[in-house]
Structure formats: structure tokens, C-alpha cells
Amino acid sequence: MTAISIPIFNKKRDEFNKTKVKGDLLGVAGTDVPIAEFEKLTLPYKIGVNGYAFIVTNNGYVLFHPKLRPVEDGILKDNHNSIDLTELEMIDDNKEDEQPRQPHKDIVQLREAIVNHKRGSMENLSIKFHYDNMRRVGSEVRNYHYTALDPKIEGPFTLGLVLPASYGNNWIKAGDEINKSIGSDEQFDKYFQDKWKIHPNWVYCDYFHSSERKFENPEEKLLHFMEKIFSPDWEWREQYPDSNFENISMDEFDRRECDRKPIDIDEFYCDKELMQLLFFDAKITHALYNLTWKPTTEFEKHYVDQYNVSVRFLATQGGLSRWQHILDLAEGELQFGDIHN
């Protein structure tokens, strides 16, 4: 959770001197924003599993980052909200005489640009990273891209995006698979039958007043919106429609915000690209997991017996997971998707 506040001033003109603004402090407005809400907006399905996003404040402290570990043994660390970016991103320069906690000049330069809300990138940085529960260290060449979250109002946050070099050159672009199915009178639920799940933290579709609607799980919510999508009066709606924000004045921005209508309880939004990608994944994987699978060839039987294979599964770019148990589950044993979700 992070708290954001801003002073509110009286901008009315002085009644005696019309060229002078009063500028009286009226008070302070603020709100609390869960960190998870920031993470949802980074669109992790586009970043991919080998990249990540992070946010840094104007003090250089990390708001969220995959290497940030604010809790240890269930206890919140004392300095959890004052971890500097230079403590999480470390250059692999192979210098044995390097002093501990002495950041490399490239990381210092990166931090300076981010803190000053610059827009740009630094490429081909060799970065150390840990894995296997911090038991091993590796090195990878990465590219860093950054921009202020709100350059118009000079907000306190800068967004960073990290991708491995030569990564993300290929992308599966799903067509309008949903409309194709609607045009051929296909029923969407035939592709969402047994043993499947979606990514629990990704936003496919949701209501603006999400707390007013209760769903048992993300899959139930998805099917609810799929039914809406396949209805005749469906219309795609975005969470944040393009408002040409960067090309308008602050006065015009304030006027638009003040004139904004309240959001109705039934209003919703969808990530069209993610929904199309998910439906595409569901269609092309349906036949592979629609029937019970047993090893038939000598090659398959050999590997099932040698490695005691008990389940086959897949996970797609659209966040869809499917699985099939090759061996019968013991009484009370959980499904693969209930364990790994």
C-alpha cells in the first residue's frame, strides 16, 4: 500500500485585484493505493516471464520490484519502504576489489535519470541476478527503459521496464478469434470445460465497482464476461480510454476531471487484446486436452515408466493453464491446477 496526497489551493482571483490569484491553502486531498493495482497496469502478459517492471519514487526508493523482499519470516522489515534502486540492480563487472554496497557508475546514472523523471533507456548492461531461492547467482545482459508515470503533473513515480537483450522480438498476435466464433455460431463454453485455469492476478475483464460483485474464483468471472461478450449487444470498453492527455493544458485536464460522470455500478472494462489471446489459446489447445490421454507409442511408454510421469500440462501466453492426470489421483489428492496456481 502507498499513500498519495496533494495540497489544494484556492485559485480564485482576488476580488480587488483581478490579476492576482489568492492561492490560499484549503486543505490536503489524499488516497491509498494498493501496490497490486500498480502491478496490474504493467500488463505482465506483454512483458513476458523473462522481463519485469518496477516503480521508483522521486527519492530513489523502490515502490515495487521483483527483488524487493519487504517481509522476512512473516515480519515486515524496518526499512521495507526505503530500499534504494542501487541495492537491487547490480552490475556484473568481475571486479574482485569492488567494495560492498558501492554501486557501479552505470547504475548510479540509471538511478539519476529515473529519479529526475527522464524518459529514455540504457542498453546492454550486464546484471547479476539470483535464483534457486538465492542459492545461486547468474549474469544476464539486460536493457532498461524508463519514463515518468505522469509527466504532465510531475508526479512522484517513474516506471521502469527491464528486458533481456535480444528478447521479445517475436510475438503471437491473435486475430479476432472471438468474432470468428460468434459468426460461426460456436459456443464459447466448449473450450472451457474441465481442468483449466487462468492467471489469478491478470485483469481480463472486471467491474469498476468490483467489490459489489462476488465470484468464487477468476474462472467464474471469466465465464461471466465471456457470456456477455457473446451476447448481441456487446461493446468493448477500456479501463482508461485514450484521452489525448499529453496534448491538453492543465486547465483543460482539470475541467475534464471535474466534469467526469460518476461510474455506474454495472459498468465494466476488458483488456480486448488479452481476451482475444486467451480465447485463441483455448481454441488451439482444446483438442489436445479434450480427451483422456494415455501413452501409446513405445517412446511414450518408456518415458512415462522411467520418469514416473503423472501429469501433462501447458501454460500459454494468454495465462491459460490446462492439465491432465495420467495416473489416477489418490483419495483427497489435489488437482495439479489447484496446487500450481
Question: How does this structure look, described?
Answer:
This protein is of the alpha+beta class and 341 residues long. The chain has three domains: 1-33, no CATH class; 43-164, Beta-Lactamase; 177-339, no CATH class. The protein is 23% helix and 25% strand. The chain contains nine helices and 15 strands. The chain has a six-stranded antiparallel β-sheet, with helices on one face. A three-stranded antiparallel β-sheet has the order 11-15-14, covered by helices on one side. A two-stranded antiparallel sheet has the order 1-2. A hairpin with a 4-residue loop joins β8 and β9. The mean pLDDT is 87. GO terms for molecular function: voltage-gated calcium channel activity.
